[in-house]
Amino acid sequence: MTARVIDGVKLAAKIREDVAHRAAHLTAAGMKPGLAVILVGSDPASQVYVKNKVAACEKAGLHSVLEQYPSDMTQESLLERVRALNVDPAIHGILVQLPLPPHIDSHRVIEAIAAQKDVDGFHISNAGLLMTGKPLFRPCTPYGVMKMLEAEQVPIRGAVAVVIGASNIVGKPMAMLLQSAGATVTICNSKTKDLGWHTRHADIVVVATGKPKMIDASMVKAGAIVIDVGINRNAEGKLCGDVDFESVKTVAGAITPVPGGVGPMTIAMLLVNTVEAAERAQQR
Predict the structure, then answer these.
(1) pLDDT (tens digit, 9 = 90+) per residue, 12-49?
(2) Residue scoring higher pLDDT (45 or 120)
């Protein structure tokens, strides 16, 4: 048995095409969707992510603003920039690239973003709305995973799902979205006792721990859907995920690759959230 590979690049391209149509419609009505991205410091991975996000915006016909600041930027200066963007009518989405330098409290910065412009979905009010099943914005990576499951016509209602990783960015919102869709969800982590017992009973496994190849074929039920959110580099410097792709693909029903899986979907859903923010602003 060889799992079908879920092509995140192909699905993301379809979503971006739809975003471009919606953006063109808004622009014609005098409201071009705008995204502001703030990068503090010179973290190489963050620079790549930000560059990709800005390029995707421009390609889809969105207005994008990239603000780069040195790592010694003060917290108050950053908060001032966020407050200014909150009231800028040309900006519908604000994204502060994480991680921030250690002297800046990321929670304070996220909470400073206006909830209606929080296209990352990290603001406490958006997290609360997600908990109640009525999200304003879904965090981009979990949102992208749900779109992948939808595109693959994976039956979620009644399924047993295991999410490995409990971050506010991926694990927790992922569990909430799966639960809202009717799955029975268990949240595990890298320290969970007998992790394999949980994963072998799961119809859907979502892995987001940042630990290379921690899930192998012995831990996966035959025919399960395996979603790998991890992005790591192996000893040779090549990108790899949290799942041992080569072994797991021999037992899984479907699996996402790294790269080319969840990553492109994260950016695509950021564009979707930005367009949705602009559409709401148009209605106000």
Answers:
(1) 999 999 999 999 999 999 999 999 999 999 988 899 89
(2) 120
Length of the chain: 284
Which residues are CB-neighbours of 20 under 8 A, at least 6 positions away? 59, 60, 61
Closest CA to 114 of 105, 104, 124: 124
Distance CA 139, CA 173 (A): 7
Report how far residue 221's alpha carbon sits from residue 215's, in angstroms, rounded to the nearest whole number.
12
C-alpha pair distances (Å), 51 with each of 46, 47, 218, 271 = 8, 6, 38, 14
152's tokens: 């693959």
- The tens digit of pLDDT for each residue in 168-204 reads 999 999 999 999 999 999 999 989 999 999 999 999 9
Nearest to 199 by CA among 251, 239, 155, 258: 251
Of 2.60.130.10, 3.40.50.10860, 3.40.630.30, 3.40.50.1220, the CATH number of 30-115 is 3.40.50.10860
Active site residues: 53, 97, 120
Q: What is the CATH number of domain 140-262?
A: 3.40.50.720
pTM for the whole structure: 0.96
Question: Could you give the CA distance from residue 194 to residue 186 in angstroms, rounded to a whole number?
Answer: 13
Helix (H, G, I), strand (E, B) or coil at 34: strand
Rounded CA-CA distance 16/7 in Å is 14
The radius of gyration of the chain from alpha carbons, rounded to an integer in Å, stands at 19
CB atoms within 10 A of CB 208: 26
Which of 244, 256, 241 is CA-nearest to residue 218? 244
In a 10 Å sphere around its CB, with 0-12 CB exposed, 13-18 middle and 19+ buried, how is residue 111 labelled? Answer: middle
The residue written with tokens 């969105």 in the block is 62
Distance CA 220, CA 183 (A): 18
Q: Which residues pair with 68 in a beta bridge?
A: 39
